[in-house]
Amino acid sequence: MESQVLVIGHKNPDTDSICSCIVMAKLAEHYGVNAKPARLGNINKETEYVFKHLNIEEPELIEKVDEGQKLILVDHNEKAQSVEGRDKAKIMAVIDHHRIADFETTEPLYYLAKPYGCTSTILFEEYKKAGLEIDKVYGTLMLSAIISDTLLMKSPTCTENDVKAIHELEKITGLKADEYGLEMLKAGTDLSTYSSQEVINLDAKEFEKNGKKIIISQVNTADIDDVFSRREELEFAIEKEISDKKVDLFIFVITDIINTNSKIIALGNEKALVEKAFNNKLDEFDSMMLNGVVSRKKQIAPPLLDVID
Amino acid sequence: MESQVLVIGHKNPDTDSICSCIVMAKLAEHYGVNAKPARLGNINKETEYVFKHLNIEEPELIEKVDEGQKLILVDHNEKAQSVEGRDKAKIMAVIDHHRIADFETTEPLYYLAKPYGCTSTILFEEYKKAGLEIDKVYGTLMLSAIISDTLLMKSPTCTENDVKAIHELEKITGLKADEYGLEMLKAGTDLSTYSSQEVINLDAKEFEKNGKKIIISQVNTADIDDVFSRREELEFAIEKEISDKKVDLFIFVITDIINTNSKIIALGNEKALVEKAFNNKLDEFDSMMLNGVVSRKKQIAPPLLDVID
Predict the structure, then answer these.
(1) Does the CB of B110 have a partner CB in chain A at under 8 Å?
(2) How many Cβ pairs closer than 8 A exist between chain A and B?
(3) Among the four A117, A262, B81, B118, which has the fewest Cβ within 10 Å?
């Protein structure tokens, strides 16, 4: 038997990273690859809702990989977002919907990226091309991932392909995206049991450009003020993170999933970049309202990365 | 009408880069994109044979692209191998069969890579998936590219998918790969009209790793000794290139397409890397015989890049 290939999403996994690694592992098995899904961190409450709904187990947690370990990456490619030990591992394939950066191999590989709202939408199309049946469980995994990444189709990252996949998956699963999806998203907004340090790390992604280290962390909420009321303790946790990880800029994004707006808090030596990127001033709480902004990938990271030069 | 997207292969274009950009442009048009093929340099004699056979015109030559120009890249991704001005252009899609390195975008894109022998094999499969008819002209372009990149299926880069595509394309075009392909490959081995400087640049690819600049240049021949008889003038041209372009290592690969061996000449401050990579000594002419080695991508670049650390 060929050596086992691990299928992994990004650090601080979100619903897409967790669901897509399971969905991808099955597709790889279909093509004769001995594949196993794994996760790089705890699942969040939104993803927990999905697994409780399906009554299935979450993928195994791994912290690092050994030299020569074969990997399939889903939902990410940048090194800073990936597993420890990746430099000495062998990346066989990548399925992703993000920009490509800080990614290098010495040999050719499979790489499939599409500018869709969600990795699972790409996988949904690959299942169809492969003639691989999508059952209720895998359909729900895909549907959950797409609803999560597109904020129930409200995010500007949502494409026609995502909408089409959602509607087809509603038929397969018998679920209504509006009802099931809103419950799932709401489950993810419950931050009450998390410490501030946990809150700022729930969905944090690291970016590197021109030697600058940027972390953009995002939480969903139905009430921005409710999260912002924890501002002081959150700032304290962010300042500690900045100092511990030598971060140049930390942006904490509080996204209102009902009204599709975001409030950000920006800290670090390079916080002026935020003012330049969004052409606006940070207020006395180092915060700024971004109307209509909900997507880190499409609305926050690109203007920021563009002003670093 | 949407702004025109240029479809380009790599610098010092080979038959795959030229044929695939034409083939890709038609596929893009099929998906509603206003696409135009272009080339980054003169076509070589092998490619010339293909265009004479088909009696069609070669793509337009471009030297650089303007800011904001939309691009589709075929057969390459590394910056050093791509068009001038790419940093400020917008890469919409990449179709490639090489390792990924020195490639970065700020936004998501289409990226399709497979570890096949040839870009045109990937495109052949995409035409079939899209239900797009392959006529004799486009079939010949694809067939020529695959024969070129796989050295008539003799290269270790050749996969089952390449072989399958060749056989299907033989039916479509009515050509016999063995006959047509050997004539085409032989046409490419005629170096008699080229100056030494032209010979070493016909199919030269630049690689960067850890700040080291490496050029690997390859020519095909039916007689290694014949090319090697020009050693002195070739070395002179290589030394000039090393000095002009601040190259750390220049490897000139003379590949015998009949017996599938290669002789290399290695020059530059880092020529010891070659001895380390191939575990053998360079002789008094700075040359080394590599038995069974014909593929830069699979047999020369990876061991070299691996010893740079």
Answers:
(1) yes
(2) 79
(3) B81
Chain center to CA of B208: 17
Which one-letter DSSP state was computed for residue B55?
Answer: T
* Residue A204, both tokens: 């944090």
Chain B CA closest to residue A111: B113
Homologous superfamily of B5-186 in CATH? inorganic pyrophosphatase (n-terminal core) (3.90.1640.10)
Q: What share of chain B is helix, strand, coil (3-state, %, to 5)?
A: 40, 20, 40
* CB neighbourhood size of A246 (10 A): 7
Q: Is B104 on the interface with A (CB under 8 A)?
A: yes
The full set of domain ranges for chain A reads: 5-186, 196-308
Q: Which of A72, A79, A95, A107 to mutate: most B Cβ within 10 Å? A: A107
Distance CA A101, CA A78 (A): 6
**What SS3 class is residue A177?**
helix
Q: How far is B138 from chain A (nearest CA, A)?
A: 24
CB contact under 8 A, B108 and A99: yes
Q: How far apart are CA A5 and CA A91, in angstroms?
A: 9
- Cβ contact (<8 Å) for B302 and A106? yes
Render pLDDT for B174-208 as a digit per residue (tens, 0 to 9). 999 999 999 999 999 999 999 999 999 999 999 98
Give residue-wise pLDDT tens across range B37-94: 999 999 999 999 999 999 999 999 999 999 999 999 999 999 999 999 999 999 999 9
Q: How far is A105 from chain B (nearest CA, A)?
A: 6
State pLDDT tens for residues B234-270: 999 999 999 999 999 999 999 999 999 999 999 999 9
Tokens of A91: 């990346």
- Give the DSSP per-residue string, A141-209: HHHHHHHHHHTTTTSTT--HHHHHHHHHHHHHH---HHHHHHHHHHHHT--TTS-HHHHHHTTEEEEEE
The architecture that CATH gives domain B196-308 is: Roll (3.10)
pTM for this one? 0.91
The pair of structure tokens assigned to A195 is 């410490």
Instruction: Please check whether residue A93 is in contact with residue A110, taking contact to mean a CB–CB distance below 8 angstroms.
Output: yes
Measure the CA–CA gap between A248 and A244, rounded to whole angstroms: 11
Please indicate whether, in this complex, the C-beta atoms of A98 and B109 are within 8 angstroms of each other.
no
Judged by CB atoms closer than 8 Å, whether chains meet at B110 and A115 is answered as: yes
* Residues in Cβ contact with A183 at an 8 Å cutoff, skipping those fewer than 6 apart: A49
- Is B115 at the interface with chain A, CB within 8 A? yes
